[in-house]
Amino acid sequence: MIHQAPALTIATLLLSAFWIPILGMFKKESAYYIALAALFLSFASACVTLYSVLLHGTVHYHMGGWLPPWGIEFVIDYLNAGILALIALISFLTTIAAKESVKQEINRDKWPAFWSLYLLLIMSLMGMTETGDMFNMYVYLEVSSLTAYGLIAMGEDGALMASFNYLILGSVGASFYLLGVGYLYIVTGSLNMADLYRLIPGLYHSKVVFTAFAFFMVGIGIKMGLFPLHVWLPDAYTRAPSSISTLIAPTMTKVSVYVLFRIILSVFHIQFSTTIIPAAKLLLWIAAVGIIYGSIMAIAQKDIKRMLAYSSISQIGYIVLGIALANRMGLIGGALHIFSHAFAKGCLFMVAMAIVYKTGIRNIDEFKDLNKKMPFTMAAFCIAALSMVGVPPTAGFFSKWYIVLGTISGRHWTLTAVILASSLLNAIYFFRIIEKTYFSSFLGGGGHGHHEAPSVAIAEAPVTMVIPILIMAVGILAAGIFNFQIIHHLLQFIIPKGLV
Amino acid sequence: MIKRYDNLIIEFFCRIIAAPVFLFGVYIIFHGEASPGGGFQGGVILGAGYIMLAIAYGIDFTLKRLREKVILFLSCFGVFIYGGIGAACILWQGNFLDYGKLPLPLTHANAIRGIGIMGVEIGVGLTVMGVMVSIYYDLIVAGGVQPEIKGE
Amino acid sequence: MEFILSKFNYLMYIAMMMIGFYAMIAKHNLVKKVIGMNIFQAAIILFYISIGAKKGATIPILEGGEHHAISPESIQVAHYINPLPHVLMLTAIVVGVSVTGVALALIILIYRRYKTIEEDEILRRLS
C-alpha cells in the first residue's frame, strides 16, 4: 500500500468528490464531513509519499502498469515531494478553518456542489504536482482552472465578472500550454518529461523548440500571475468567497510556479534558458518589474484581500527571480520561497477570513482595536507579516537571504537593490496594518491623561479557525528555524549537476 | 421556458429516429476498445438524442421522465464505475487502472485488459450523457432554485 | 506558392487562431467572447489532428481476431496514420465543451444580475 501512495492521494479525492452530491441530496451537512475525511486520507498519503522519497530517492509510479514513454507515469522527486506535502497540509488546514466561513457565506443549497468542486480543485493541484507527463499536466491544469472558475463565481457582488475574466484569460493560457506541448510532440514524438529531457538537446538548432518554449512561458505566466499577465488575479482573489481565497492563494500560483521549475529544469536543460536563448535574462527583468509593481499597488489598496492579492503578485516575482538567476543560491532561494510564501500567505488569508467572519470588516481603516478583540488571530498576522517583510527567524528571511545571495553571486547588483527596496515597500503596507491595529488607541485617542483605554471584550474567531491559524504561524517559524534541514535533506538535490 | 412545439411531423419523426440514435450511441460506446469510438463520443450522442427529444416534445415532458436528481446520480455513478475499476486494480496488487491484474476467467491476457477498457468506457459514457443533459437542463429551465446573489 | 501549399495546415490554424483571439479581445458582447474562445480552441484541435496525417496512409485499425493473429513484426508503421493526436484531442474537445458550459452558465447569472451582457455596460454598472 505504501507503493500505491502517489495514486491514493488522487483516487481518494476523486471518489469522494462524487459521493458528495449523492449524499448531499439527503443531508446537506454531510458534505463537509466527507470532504474532511477524504482530505485527511489524501494528506496521509502525501506524507507517506514524502517519507518514501526521503528514504529511497525518486519515486516512479506507472499508471495502468504501462512503462514510460508509452504510458503515463507519476514522478515524485525531491522538488515534488515537499510541494505535494505542502499542498496537502495547507488544504487540510484550510478545510478545518473554512467550515464556519462557508456556513456564513455560501447558500445552503449549494453546499454539496461547493465541497465537491473544492475536492476536485485540490485533486487537480496534487495531480499537477505529481505527474511526469506533459499532456497529463494539461488535463490537471484545466480541471484546476474549471473548478476555480466555478468556486470563484460563488462569491460576493462582483464575483461573476471576475470569474468570467479569469475564464477567458485562463483558457488562453491553457491553450498556449497545449500548443507548446503540440510543438514539442511534432519534433520529438514523445510526451514524457524524462524522454523530452533526453531528446531536446539534439534539437537546439530548430525554431520549433524555441516557439514551444515561448508558448510555455506565456501560458504558465498567465496561470501564475507573472507581471504583465496578472490582470485576472486581484479581482479573482478579492471577490471570491473567503474560504476559496484562502485555498487558492497559497496553492494555485505555487503549483504553476512549480510547473515553470519543471519546464526550465527537467524538460529543457538549464543551459537552454541561459545560453541558447536569453530567456533567463528576460525573466529576470520581468520578475523585477513585477516585484516593484506588486508592492506599489499593494500600498495603494484599502481592502485587505485586494492588498494581499497584489502582495501575492509581488511574491511570485521573487520566486521567478530565484529561478531565472539560474545559479545554486537562486534556485534554492526560489524553492524555499515557495514554502515560506505558501505558509505566510495562507496564514494571512486565513486571518482575513477570520476577521471577515467575525466582524465583517474588510477596510483596513476600521481595524482599530482588533488586537483586543481577536488577540491570537492578530498575533499570527504579525508573525506572517514579519515573514513577508523578511525578519529572522521567520521563513521569509531565509528564502529572501538566499535569493539575495544568488543575485550577488550572479553579479546583478540592480536586482539586489530591487529586492531590498521591495522589502522596504512590503514593510510599509504590512506595518501600516499593525500600526492601525495595535497602536491607534495610543496615538489617535488623545495624548496624556488618557490612561484607561475602554476595555474591549475578547470576541475571538471560533476554535476551528484559530487552531489552523496558529498551526500555520508555527509552520512559518518552523520552516525558518529548520530551513537548513529542509535544504540539506530535500532542496539541494534539485540543482542540476554542474551549476555553480 | 420552451413550450411544446405543436407540429405533428416533428414529433412523429423525432419519436421514430430517437431509438436508432440511442442504439448508435450505445454501439459507439461498446466499440471503444478496438475501433474508433469510446466513452466520450458515445456519451455525447446519447445526450444529443435526449436533447433532441427535449426540443421536440418540450422540456416538461422530458423533465418528468428523467429528473434532475436522477441525472445527477447518473453522472456520479459513471465516475464511480471508472474509479471503482481503478481502485479494484489496486486491491489486486496492480497499479491504478492496471486492468491486467483483475481476476477475470479469460484465457488471453489482453482480453482482460479489453474488458477493463470496456468497463471504463461505459462509466465515462454514462457520465458524459448525464453531464450533457444536465447542462441542457440548467441552461433552459428558468424556474427551480433561484441563486441568491449577494448584494442584490 | 510552394510555401503556402506545403505548410497549408499551419497557415490555416494560425488564421483561425487569430480570428478567435480577435473575437475574444475586441468584441464587447460576452457571448461573442465565448464564441471566440471556441474558435481558438477549435484551431488548436485542427492543428493537432493535421500533424498526425501521413501521405498514402490508411486508418489505424488492425483487423484481427481468433483466426488470424497479428504479429508485431508484420505491421509497418508508415502505412497507418498516427492515432495519438486524435486521442489527445478527444480530451481537449471535452475540456472545451466544459469551459463553454461554465462560461454560458456564468453569462446567464450575469444577465440575471446586471440585465445586460454587453461588457462596457456591465463595467459601467460595476463601478
Number of alpha- plus pi-helical segments of chain B: 5
Can you write the helix and strand succession of chain A as a string? HHEEHHHHHHHHHHHHHHHHHHH
Please give the number of β-strands of chain B: 0
The largest chain-to-chain contact, stated as pair and per-chain residue counts, equals: A-C, 24 and 28 residues
Oligomer: heterotrimer
Detailed description of the structure:
The complex is a heterotrimer of chains A (500), B (152) and C (127). Chain A is mainly α and 500 residues long. Chain A has a domain of 186 residues. Chain A contains 21 helices and 2 strands. Chain A has a two-stranded antiparallel ribbon with strand order 1-2. In chain A, helix 3 runs parallel beside helix 14. The longest helix of chain A has 32 residues. Chain B has 152 residues and is an all-alpha fold. Chain B has one domain. The C terminus of chain B is likely disordered. Chain C has 127 residues and is mainly α. Chain C has one domain: Helix Hairpins. In chain C, 66% of the residues lie in helices and 0% in strands. Chain C is built from 5 helices and no strands. The radius of gyration of chain C is 22 Å and the shape is elongated. The mean pLDDT of chain C is 87. Chains in contact: A-B, A-C, B-C. The interface between B and C is medium-sized, with 14 and 12 residues.
Task: Please sum up the structure shown.
The complex is a heterotrimer of chains A (500), B (152) and C (127). Chain A has 500 residues and is an all-alpha fold.
Task: Name a few traits of the molecule.
heterotrimer; B: 152 residues; mainly alpha; elongated; C: 127 residues; Helix Hairpins; 66% helix
Write the layout of secondary structure elements.
The complex is a heterotrimer of chains A (500), B (152) and C (127).
Chain A: H1 5-24, H2 30-56, E1 59-62, E2 73-76, H3 78-105, H4 111-130, H5 134-152, H6 159-188, H7 193-199, H8 207-224, H9 233-239, H10 242-267, H11 270-276, H12 279-299, H13 304-325, H14 328-359, H15 370-373, H16 375-389, H17 395-409, H18 413-438, H19 440-443, H20 463-481, H21 483-489
Antiparallel strand pairs in A: 1-2
Chain B: H1 8-30, H2 39-57, H3 59-65, H4 68-91, H5 109-140
Helix pairs in contact in B: 1-2, 2-3, 2-5, 4-5
Chain C: H1 2-6, H2 8-26, H3 30-50, H4 84-114, H5 119-126
Helix pairs in contact in C: 2-3, 3-4
